[in-house]
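Please, structure for the following, as tokens.
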Amino acid sequence: MSLAIAVITAPRPQPTFNATIGELRRAGFRERLHVFAEPHSRLGFHPDVEVHAHPQRLGMWRNWLHAARWLLCETTASRLLICEDDLSLAAGAASALAAAYRTLPWTDFGYASLYTPAHNVWGQTLQNGWQPLSTQRIAWGSLALAFTRASLRELLHAKTTLAHGGQNGTDEVVCAATQTLGRRVYFHVPSLCAHAGGANSSVGHYSTPSTAAVGFDPLFGWDKSA
């Protein structure tokens, strides 16, 4: 089964785009990357990366929506991953995501988040590997969200999604809409992803104990024989 990957990017106080592309490759994602860039984004050249530059600023939420729609309309991949441009990844992230698609039930699959902040798991019994989020909780974080084609299509047509008119709030809207559809949200322990920097947000977000990536280890899943 094929995977299509989108990366959304915007200007930041300290550019993180080039490092993020390196993180994706180091984590085992070899697919062509489709980058959706806000005006004045600082982008370096990378092989097998296609840039889709917006002539006008969309804002984080509309840029994410644009990337999601593009993946559905312009690719035939059965698996779809949308990433932000300020992430660090575990070395085994691609393998762990592939395992999620192989082992988790697709009938009610909503999305799998590679990022597991502490907020999302407080009070929940944890085990290593993939597990569903408590349905009473709204997940934080939209660093790297993986969908099936069916789950992303349903999400884009959900009332919760269509009603959101703000520029931010991607994580809360996507999680709430997914749960309303009766689909499950999954996370991984340890977290396969972390924010690359603290006070470097394009929308004014800052790191707190609540946003710390649970057990994140950049060498998790590293194949020493490779």
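The CA atoms of residues 132 and 159 lie 23 Å apart. Confidence is low (pLDDT under 50) at residues 199-204.
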